[in-house]
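Section 5.1 Outputs to date
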Amino acid sequence: MSEPPPRRRPLRLSWQLAAMVATTVLAAWLSYALRSPCFGSYSKALSFSAAHGCDSDLQVMWFQRGLRDHVLPYLNLLPGTTSSPATIEYPVLTGLLMWVLSLPATTFAGFVAITAVVMGALAVVLTVVAYRFAGPRAWVWALSPALVLYLTYNFDLPPVLCMVGALALVIGRDPRTVSRPRYLGAALLLALGGALKLFPLVLGPALVAWLVIGRPGARQTPLRRRLRRGAEAAGAALALLVAVNLPVALANPQGWWAPLAYQASRTITQDTMSIWYFLATWVPIPQRTLMTLASVATAVGLVAVLAVGGRISRRLGEFPLLGSSVALMAAYVLLNKVFSPQYMLWILPLLVLAGFRAWATVSLVVVDVVLYWSWHFLVLAAATWNMTAYTPWRLLNEAAIGTRGWLVATCGVVALLAGARSRFPVTLFLHETSLLFDATRPRRAPRTAPELGPARSSTVTEGQRELVDA
């Protein structure tokens, strides 16, 4: 039983798709309006921005990273708050995109308005892709408050679109016969997303594993051909990353390295909202040790997801590309030293594509809204020395962070194991027809027995046959 392909709906305009697009455009406008109270000077009181929830990373980029003066990032470094020079702290394509969009703007409000238009257009494209693969379930994306909260918070939508576009090219295809333009296009899109922000690269090994493992069984393609296709995908992605980064690295090595150095040296504090901060509140661990633990745990978590995916490939019929993508992203955001609220934009489209029922994704969205505003009211209480309000807001914020972590971890595990066949009730519950998954997704026609791998018994029960036919 291979991973069921999402249903691809024709791209003809329907009232539902038109309504989703209109809703997405409205979310872009509301995101701009949410930022509007902070359009004045960057010196606005911390209590003011916390009360309105209008702060964003774009403020830092505009006022402190040179975008107000249209300083070309990476090639021109600014004095930093520490001994290290400052520039935009993201990979080169995001910095250059921010710089390009800042050129027509003369005020911070103008920069946010331009950002809202461009990010809103990308969000519309994501809505169309989600609708094509998920149908009405795409309302979870179009109506999500995450679009309002984070569309103009940072430049996360371009790499998210690259990641979703890469999956859209190959999910539901046969890894043995998928065309070269499709799998190379997917690899290049992941690399393009990695040149914008690093997280789409996390899915690269899953794509290569999907190509190399193929379809275990009697009709498996030769290993040499599978290895060649995997190497082509990896090579294309690496070539694009080098082509994007090498000119900047040669022009100013220190400027190219500055964002990586900034992210590597970023300490784990309360505003990183990661499990490691809460671990440090219970166990006294030095900061350097804590950061090392986060890095090692992230690497181990990613390798474990790939290993489990490979282990169940024979039972599933192919490497679970979509399920492992959800699990890889869940492991990355949970075990890394930072789990910022806007990472919801990374996770939500994957859950919609993977086929999670609305209640599962809506639960995560609701928790994210509670987390966002509880954090801002916590900051407001701290800035105004309102200790009476500080404690309950902190407890609510920490409860939301913990709940978000458990929900994301559960979604990752469910997505990875959903297609596995087993006699154990837990894996049967994690099957696509469980309460977590949409049972209306299309089923594939049964494959012949040789493709199902070695049989455990000559007797096939009716329940097992239903799982096979799925």
